[in-house]
Amino acid sequence: MEKSKKKVGAKKTTKVVEPVAKKKNNQLKATIMGIAMIVAALGLGVGTYAYYQSTITGTVSGSITAWSFLVNEKATDFTANLGDLKPGVSGQLTLNLSAEDSGLGVNAVVSFSGKTNWPANLKLYSDAGKTSEIIVGTTTISRTIAAGSADTVVIYYDWPLGTSAETGPTANQNASFVVTVVGTQVQQ
Amino acid sequence: MNKKVFLLVCVSLFIFSIVFTMQTYSYFSTNVTGTGSLTFASWSFTANGEDTSFTTDLGELYPGIDRSYQVRLSAVGSDVPVDYTVTFNYPNNIPANLKFYKDSAKQQEINLDGGTVTGTLNAGTETVITIYYDWPYGSSAEEYVPGNAWFNMTISGHQKDPSRGE
What we know:
The structure holds two protein chains of two kinds.
Chain A: H1 2-48, E1 53-64, E2 70-71, E3 90-98, E4 106-116, E5 123-125, E6 140-145, E7 150-158, E8 176-185
Chain B: H1 2-26, E1 46-47, E2 53-61, E3 66-74, E4 82-92, E5 99-101, E6 116-121, E7 126-134, E8 147-159
Antiparallel strand pairs in B: 1-3, 3-7, 4-6, 4-8, 5-7
């Protein structure tokens, strides 16, 4: 009776031990496989990067030089009113040419066009002595303005009184001409 | 029980034979110790003396400018030759008429958005790459674009594949 009890006990012990051994065995296999995979991955990595390499980034920059050209403080259009025009009137129109905010010099050319309703004896001159008459459509006045500086062009007008009788308009009417000023960068 | 005795005898004999064999040859053997050593070839690649980044300032840019700038590529200190690739990219605010060229005759224009310049440096040598730039004057009036202009040069130095030879 005792003998049979021992045998039964032994059988029970065997049944309990076998799954633990299997589990350990599986863990060992898993560990080995893991290590093998890591080694394989490292080997593959070394193979991929097996050369020397450097990368350097250079930034190339420059500053676009400032450009500015204004006439009577305007960059596009300006108007100048000469007031009432009649025989005996004279005066001057000043054009302020500015390259004060420019990093480059400016070649300025002033030209005249579009004379409308302009009295025949009302003359325009480029000098105070009124020896250089401005012929609208033909005459140009040039200036070279250094970077960061300004210059002026003065236009003199004169409608002499008393040279001859002239028929004026019965009512006020406008007379005008167009002044075009082109500022071009001076070639460096 | 007999099996255990037999196994014990076998193991004893095995150990004995090993010890005996070693002793037998111990009088005739010579131990030579060799030290195997190796040296890794050194690697060095710089651009304008820098190994990560550098800046080049072209100064003022305006119509009529016609100049060049240089980039010094160096493999001095490297034991292996270097294949280099200079890639131009990320142009920003570059005026349309400001062009960059590989040659002084301005025949080979560089595309600043992906263009490349390539070459090979022998080990321990250096070279200077000259980039020419030109913004022609007088072709036409141009809309003024204020501010800074810039682009990047990504310079990659790659060890030359020895199998490609010199």
